[in-house]
Amino acid sequence: MKLTALTSRSPGRPKNDLAPLGGGSGFRAGGSLTSRSPGRPKNDLAPLGGGSGFRAGGSLTRRWACLALLALASAEAHAELPATVALALRQAGIPDSHVGIVVREIGNPLPRLAHGEHRSLNPASVMKLVTTLAALDTLGPAHTFKTRIYADGPLADGVLSGNLILQGGGDPALTLERFWLMLRELRERGVRDIRGDVLLDDHYYQLDPIDPAAFDQAPLRPYNAPPSALLVNFNTLNLRLSMSEGSITPRIDPPTSTPALVNQLQNSDAPCNGWRAKIERQADSDNLVLTGAYPAACGDQSIPLNLLSPEATLAALFGTVWRELGGLHGGQVRSVSGEDRAPGAAPALLLEFDSPPLAQLVRDINKFSNNVMAKMLYLNLGAQRFEAPATWNKGDRAVRAWLEERGLEIPELVLENGSGLSRIERISAWSLADLLAYAAARPAYFEFAASLPAVGLEGTQKTRMNGSAMVGAAWLKTGSLNRVRSLAGYVLGPNGSRRILVMLINHANAAAGAKAQAALTEWAAQ
User: Fold this and answer.
1) Long-range contact pairs involving 156-161 (C-beta distance under 8 Å, separation at least 24)
2) Please, which pLDDT band fits residue 42 given cuts at 50, 70 and 90?
3) What are the start-end ranges of the H helices in 281-370?
4) Is the pLDDT of residue 241 over 80?
5) Mean pLDDT to the nearest integer, 62-89
6) Whole-number Å distance between alpha carbons of 476 and 492
7) Do the Cβ atoms of 304 and 252 come closer than 8 Å?
8) 146: CB partners within 8 A, 6+ apart
9) Which of 34, 39, 92, 413 has its CA 20 to 30 A from that of 226?
10) Distance between CA atoms of 290 and 173, rounded to whole angstroms?
11) Inter-residue contact 499 to 491 (CB < 8 Å)
């Protein structure tokens, strides 16, 4: 067995500067031999396998004896990659020096496989596991976020003689359907005709303006939607395409005054496969220009677009839904201004509308890798711990405070927005495996594990490993960016055992890493 130095980077040191644990030298067989249990002091190293162990700073002779025994007990641990995984990486042109991997049993810190496990890598959307686990563990699975509706004038005979105020509380799942339900409840409570303005209060968040094109120059993609404390339908409107007598008719649903649609689409006889990629969409403040080819075989289709600001999107949706519900409104839909906050009688609370419970929100975030929902949950964590308004800095501090309280050390952790839609966020495979092991011992484990998409069945895993024995036997969060492919979660092992799997790939050829991920998943289940 090949023994190599057991190392861990101290906070504040360079990422490639690895210092021995406990201040002295140590060894590992395929991975670290010690792991600190949650809630224990930071210098308290828990023994592997549940036997008697040692504390850092104890007898050097005893420490070496324990390490030797652990090394002998780790005959199944592998420092080298399984042949199928190594072959798939070579075929993809991905050096194993650009990969971080951990496979271990739940309840046993000694890994079956550990390779590059301490490398600080970009996890892409796998970072959502950190945010969602922190939320479940901190707030509990039944927690909700509230949207409140106030009136700042008298309400009589269905007529509100004043403004209606929508106050956002960071509900990440105020979808079009739930927005309709909220306004329908408002109608049931006697509001029919709003004689003033509809005021949008999103001051629960305090964020600098966000350029949706900044990340990848694709501002219309829904994953680039900016978070807002009062966000409806993930800030998306639908571009609807219909065919009639050989001509293509596009429209925005619901209708908006700007931008104007400029239709330059050409009819096509091609099959409908991959039709979205054949349509170019370019927008500015005045026009949305559509070019490319639309296959007639596609019939009626729709494309969700992050087209407008959160305020403008809400205004468009409010006008449509309120009219559909039989409501009247002749004023504006606009953001709350300083003048609207002038001293006077406090607005009357008309309605408090709860989000779905956190367990359901986390499922939507992880199964479908919803970026704006994850960002809002990250911001909400900051506001819950450090009071409103929510900021990115408070979100970062809230996650780190949670880690410290739980005794989880991740010195390499870099956070930007908690969603993984970032070029700078970093974590190691070892730290992710520790988090997954920690989750398995917590009351919210079942809600957390159920939020991960089942391989071959649902969410971002629906089309993966179809036809293999792994369908429905692994629950894995995926992460994909340019030069990044990641995988982390749980795999069903022999005799009903559960295993932790983490694989992070950071390389120019990462997009070709799917076969290596599949090979590792199959190996982990053996």
Assistant:
1) 158/190, 158/191, 158/192, 158/193, 159/192, 159/193, 159/195, 160/191, 160/193, 160/194, 160/195, 160/196, 161/195, 161/196
2) very low
3) 310-324, 358-368
4) yes
5) 62
6) 11
7) no
8) 169, 171, 352, 353, 354, 355
9) 413
10) 29
11) yes
Give me the residue label for tokens 């629950």: 475
φ, ψ of residue 28 in degrees (nearest 5): -140, 155
Q: Tens of pLDDT along 306-365? A: 999 999 999 999 999 999 999 999 999 999 987 776 566 799 999 999 999 999 999 999
Residues 171-229 have pLDDT tens digits of 999 999 999 999 999 999 999 999 999 999 999 999 999 999 999 999 999 999 999 99
Both tokens assigned to 71? 């090394």
* CA atoms of 360 and 370, how far apart (whole Å): 13
Compute the radius of gyration of the chain from its Cα atoms: 26
Band (pLDDT 50/70/90 cuts) for residue 76 is very low
**Does the pLDDT of residue 124 top 50, yes or no?**
yes
The residues, ordered by sequence, that sit 6+ positions from 204 with a Cβ below 8 Å of its Cβ are 167, 168, 169, 170, 229, 230, 383, 388, 389, 390
**Which residues contact residue 246 at a Cβ distance below 8 angstroms, ignoring those fewer than 6 apart?**
267, 296
For residues 306 and 212, the answer to whether their CB atoms sit within 8 Å is yes
Q: Minimal CA–CA distance to 229: which of 403, 376, 415, 55?
A: 376
Token pair belonging to 97: 């020096």
| pLDDT for residue 45 is more than 60 | no
SS3 for 22-90 is HHCCCEECCCCCCECCCCCCCCCCECHHHCCCCCCCCCHHHHHHHHHHHHHHCCCCECCCCHHHHHHHH
Pull the structure tokens for residue 396: 């970062």
Residues in the chain: 526
Degrees (nearest 5) of the Cα angle 319, 324, 184?
Answer: 90
Angle between helices 429-440 and 128-139 (to 10 degrees): 30
What is the 3 state secondary structure string of 440-465?
HCCCCHHHHHHCCCECCCCHHHCCCC
